[in-house]
From TrEMBL:
The chain crosses the membrane at residues 12-33. It holds the Pfam family LRR_1. The keyword S-adenosyl-L-methionine does not apply. It comes from Acer saccharum. Its main location: secreted. Keywords: Leucine-rich repeat, Membrane, Repeat, Secreted, Signal, Transmembrane, Transmembrane helix. It is found in: Secreted. The lineage of its organism: Eukaryota, Viridiplantae, Streptophyta, Embryophyta, Tracheophyta. GO terms for cellular component: extracellular region. InterPro entries: Leu-rich_rpt, LRR_dom_sf, LRR_extensin-like_regulator. This is Leucine-rich repeat-containing N-terminal plant-type domain-containing protein. SUPFAM superfamilies: L domain-like (SSF52058).
Amino acid sequence: MEIFHMKPLNYSLTIVIIIFFVSFPCFLCSLQFNATVTTSASLPLLPPLPLIPSLLNFLDQRLAEIYPIIQTFKNSITADPLNITGTWVGSDICNYKGFFCSNPPDNESATTISSIDFNGFQLAAPSLDGFIDQLPDVALFHANSNKFSGTITDNLAKLPYLYELDISNNDISGSFPIPILDMKDLSFLDLRFNSFSGLIPPEIFMKDLQVIFLNNNNFMQPIPENIGSTPALYITLASNKLTGPIPRSIGNASSTLKEILLFNNLLVGCIPYEVGFLKNAIVFDASNNQLTGPLPCSLGCLKKMEQLNLANNQLYGEVPEVLCALKNLENLSLSNNYFTKVGPTCENLIQGGVLDLRGNCISGFADQRTEEECSTFFSQPITCPYSSSLKLIPCSTSGSARSPSTNSVKASGVTKTSWVTYQATDLRHRL
Ligand SMILES: *[C@@H]1O[C@H](CO)[C@@H](O)[C@H](O)[C@H]1NC(C)=O
Ligand SMILES: *[C@@H]1O[C@H](CO)[C@@H](O)[C@H](O)[C@H]1NC(C)=O
Ligand SMILES: *[C@@H]1O[C@H](CO)[C@@H](O)[C@H](O)[C@H]1NC(C)=O
Ligand SMILES: *[C@@H]1O[C@H](CO)[C@@H](O)[C@H](O)[C@H]1NC(C)=O
């Protein structure tokens, strides 16, 4: 999957097959194991037995040091319906289910846990504290669809190699985990489908992240003004409780941003002219908000745009012909707004099944709002700031446009699963 190759791995993820020899009396060894298994199965709340790692023979000193951390975490697990931890026994840590070994960057001849993939394991534990933050060489931590709860520890920032953190679809709460802001090499951050609340810290958009998935939490307050500083390619802020307008700075992300999901929030205000600067964007979805105003003509500069969804807002005016002329549009969803006018290029898109204008105020069109609904809406005056920018088109549109006569339909058979950010709105999806 593309995600895994966005940044070259610091070190390879080959699973090292460990051959070890038990160099001490066997009865001692099996005695210890039986004791552990009994304890964790029947009395999970007791503190771990004082297992002495020196009685086991580890491939590497680093694994010997990690062993008691894993066993302590194992003892804290309150549910394991797939019996994952049944394999977390003995010194062969590299073959524990979910753990992967390789050579750490600071010592090519050492062997350590470099990667953890608990995706879909359904493990429950009251906290990840004292676990991930104590695995000093871990570079990837993926734990989609478990039942980990608690908050995220400050010690996380001390992990020097961690660059992918996925704790999506768990029960983790609290405010945005501030330690994440201090993680130097983090490039992939996936906190979606948890119970995080409070504000999204502006610093997150100053970090060198390629992926920021924060959808389906309880984040509140306005989107930070500096969102456009982000070098991220994929951003999902959908299905939170974000308020305020779409910041004008978003246009500053023009050379990098490919996909952004803002839907199901409480966003207000007019769509800023600067959205039209996003020349590399292929997905922009701000549906189900309270956005208003006319569409800026700058949207006609979104030359790579495939999915533009602004349905279920309070947008009005004429749908700009330059927007409908974009060649790569597969889905332009403007249903349930208050648009009043379309030109021939847009009408053509409706015919082609690309443009959806149901539930608007266009006279003579089928499936529109009632006259009463429309006149009630238009009786309230709305003004947009920078209204003079609405008609500006900050790009050359010649040659790029589809002509009104091409009834080009790219939409048929295209599913949302082709886009990275829409995949992130499926709670079980593992990236
Ligand atoms: C769990 O897995 C271990 C190791 O594979 C096995 O020995 C044990 O019997 C399993 N326990 C259950 C309850 O299935
Ligand atoms: C590198 O790791 C190997 C294997 O654990 C160890 O024997 C060696 O002392 C380490 N080298 C350094 C410089 O730490
Ligand atoms: C980012 O965008 C804002 C608003 O459009 C602008 O004022 C600011 O100068 C931009 N910053 C950079 C670094 O381009
Ligand atoms: C366009 O997107 C909307 C909103 O996600 C969806 O309901 C609709 O089926 C899509 N239409 C096409 C033609 O893909």
